[in-house]
C-alpha cells in the first residue's frame, strides 16, 4: 500500500477530540487501523497507553543512550462547513489527499510510522531507543502528552531530541523571501488566560447610569488595544530567522533583516506596526476571546467579564503579564482572576550539534530547502517534554502551500502526495543520524 493510501485510511477514522466528550472507542478503532497499516511497529515495539494516547518504544542497541522521541498527535478538530471533498473521506484526487487531519497532523504521523515500519522490515536496529508519542487530545489541551513525558521522567529518561509539529516547509514564509524554507520551531511561547471582572449595582436597563460593568470592560479593552503594555524585543531565534531569510529578499528590507542583530532597535519599533505575525514572535500578545454580561436583554449586569488569552514571551513572562494587566485593570475598577498560567518553554539552541543534525536531515531529504529557526506563536504537545529534553524542535517535514496552510482547522484541508515520501525519508535519516 502506498503512503498516500495509508494516510487516506487514517483520515477515514474520525478521531475528533472534544472537551468533555468520551470518544475513546473511535481512537481504539484508529489504533486497530494503525496496527493493520504498520504491522512491524506493533509487533516489534512496546506499546504503552495513557487513556488513548500512545507511547511506543522501539528498542535500540544501546539502552543506556539518550533516546529520540518523534511526536504527532492523533486527534483532529471538528469539520464543519462545505468541503470540496467530504472531510473524513480521505479522497485521493488532484495529486492530494483530502480530509481533516491531513496537515494537522496525521500526515506527519503516517510518515513517522511508515519510516519506522520500513526500517524494521529492512532489519535495521537503531543505535538508541526510538519513541513514538501520539496524544489523543492535543486540540483540547488534553493530558496524554503530559502523561507520556511524566512517564519518561519518572524512569529517569532524558531524550537527546524531541521532534513534534510546529513549522513546516513553505515558500515565502515572509513577503519577499524567495525560496523554500523549513521553519523549525525553537521557541514556544507560554499561554496564560485571565478573567477580567467588572462589578456593578445591576438594575433595569431603562436607567443605566454611567460606568456600568460592560462600559468599563470596553474601555479597558480599547485601552489595551491602543496602548498595550507589552514591549517588543528581538530574540536570538528571530534574529537568526531574519539572518537566513534576509539574503533572499531584494532591496533595503533584505539588507536590514540580514543584519537583524545590528538593526534590532529599529526592528523593535517598526515591526509591531507593519507585520502582525512577526510582532507575535518578539512580544507578548493579548487577545480578548470571550465575554459575558447579564442574562436579560433589558438587565444591567451586577457582574460582567471578558477573558484575555495572552501568549507570553521570555522577556515579559507570565508573572509580569499578570502584573501589567492588574495595573491597567485597576484604572477601570476591574478585577483580574487567573484561569491558568503556563510559562514560555526553554529556547532551543540553534547552534547545538543536535539542531545541526536535524538541519542536515532536512537538506538531505529536501535538497533545495533552507532550514530556518523561528519563534512559534502557537502551542504544541512538545511543551510537556521541555523539562526532560534540551532539544525540543517543532518541525513537521511536509511541504505546504498557502491554501493548505489556511485549511488547518478550516475547510478543504489537504496535503500533496509528492511531499509524503520526503517526510518518510526525513524521519528515517533522523533515526539513522542518532
UniProtKB/TrEMBL annotation:
Highest taxon listed in the record's lineage: Bacteria
InterPro entries, A to Z: Bact_exopeptidase_dim_dom (IPR036264), Pept_M20A (IPR047177), Peptidase_M20 (IPR002933), Peptidase_M20_dimer (IPR011650)
Record GO biological process: proteolysis
Secreted keyword on record: no
Residues making up the signal peptide according to the UniProt record: none
Sequence ranges assigned to domain Peptidase M20 dimerisation in this UniProt record: 188-334
KW Protein biosynthesis (keyword) present: no
Keywords, alphabetical: Hydrolase, Metal-binding, Protease, Zinc
PANTHER family, sorted: N-FATTY-ACYL-AMINO ACID SYNTHASE/HYDROLASE PM20D1, N-FATTY-ACYL-AMINO ACID SYNTHASE_HYDROLASE PM20D1
Assigned protein family: Belongs to the peptidase M20A family.
Name the record gives this protein: M20/M25/M40 family metallo-hydrolase
Source species: Candidatus Aphodenecus pullistercoris
Organism ancestry: Bacteria, Pseudomonadati, Spirochaetota, Spirochaetia, Spirochaetales
